[in-house]
Amino acid sequence: MASFAPRRRFDARGLVIPALIVAGWYVVSESGVGNGYVFVTYDRIWATFAAMVADGTLVASIVGTVLRMAAGFAIGAGFGLLLGLATGLSDLAGRVVSPTFHAVRQIAIFAWMPLLTAWLGIGGQTMIALIALGAFYPMVINVEAGCRNVPGPYLEVGRVLELSRWQTIRRIVLPAAAPAIFAGLELGLATAWLSTIGAEYFIAAGDGLGIILSASRMRGSMDGVIVGIVFIGLVGFAINRLLAVIARRAFAWRGEAAR
């Protein structure tokens, strides 16, 4: 069955590079060839990981990061969906809003940090605002493009059936734009995840994987940094795969229609 997010079979060749990295790190750290501060041994990394699990730091950090990212992503993607629909469905809105939007989105997300900390303080609200910005921009761009690129024959069917504007949007435009909307969600989620880790690292308030990185760096604990990096990658990958599963199921009807 075809779908928007095709299922990929597991391929062991994808493990070659990670295996080489693990083996190379082991050789360098155990042989003493590299800098011992940077290339910490697996024994130290494992001991730090076990300590973080035992005292609850790792679990609390994962939960804190995921909840923080979810809140910021929901806000940013929600507003991005609304603005993308407005600029994609209305030529007037596009002409009024798009120039300013495309100028503002050139500003790096973390360049807003001084203003946001002045407005919202140093804490969770500023982090969520930065995460929301990360999700907002890709969502607007993809939703607008999806609405504007609906195939002409689809719209012609709406005219033949004498559908109202709202019926055309609901029955034709939105279903046709759905793949672009999900693409915006996927890109927005990736950017929101990066923004989450960056915001936690720089602001370092509460629990979070980015805060593990910041605290470990301040203590000179490279083993803590490695544990944080590994779980940032694992959790981010899991979130991405979850969205892929949702997209695959949501677009199963496209595969059925194509058969």
From TrEMBL:
<keyword id="KW-0813">Transport</keyword>
<protein>
    <submittedName>
        <fullName>ABC transporter permease</fullName>
    </submittedName>
</protein>
<feature type="transmembrane region" description="Helical">
    <location>
        <begin position="109"/>
        <end position="133"/>
    </location>
</feature>
<feature type="transmembrane region" description="Helical">
    <location>
        <begin position="70"/>
        <end position="89"/>
    </location>
</feature>
<feature type="transmembrane region" description="Helical">
    <location>
        <begin position="224"/>
        <end position="244"/>
    </location>
</feature>
<feature type="transmembrane region" description="Helical">
    <location>
        <begin position="45"/>
        <end position="63"/>
    </location>
</feature>
<keyword id="KW-1003">Cell membrane</keyword>
<dbReference type="GO" id="GO:0055085">
    <property type="term" value="P:transmembrane transport"/>
</dbReference>
<keyword id="KW-0812">Transmembrane</keyword>
<dbReference type="InterPro" id="IPR000515">
    <property type="entry name" value="MetI-like"/>
</dbReference>
<keyword id="KW-0472">Membrane</keyword>
<comment type="similarity">
    <text>Belongs to the binding-protein-dependent transport system permease family.</text>
</comment>
<keyword id="KW-1133">Transmembrane helix</keyword>
<feature type="transmembrane region" description="Helical">
    <location>
        <begin position="172"/>
        <end position="194"/>
    </location>
</feature>
<dbReference type="GO" id="GO:0005886">
    <property type="term" value="C:plasma membrane"/>
</dbReference>
<dbReference type="InterPro" id="IPR035906">
    <property type="entry name" value="MetI-like_sf"/>
</dbReference>
<dbReference type="Pfam" id="PF00528">
    <property type="entry name" value="BPD_transp_1"/>
</dbReference>
<feature type="domain" description="ABC transmembrane type-1">
    <location>
        <begin position="58"/>
        <end position="243"/>
    </location>
</feature>
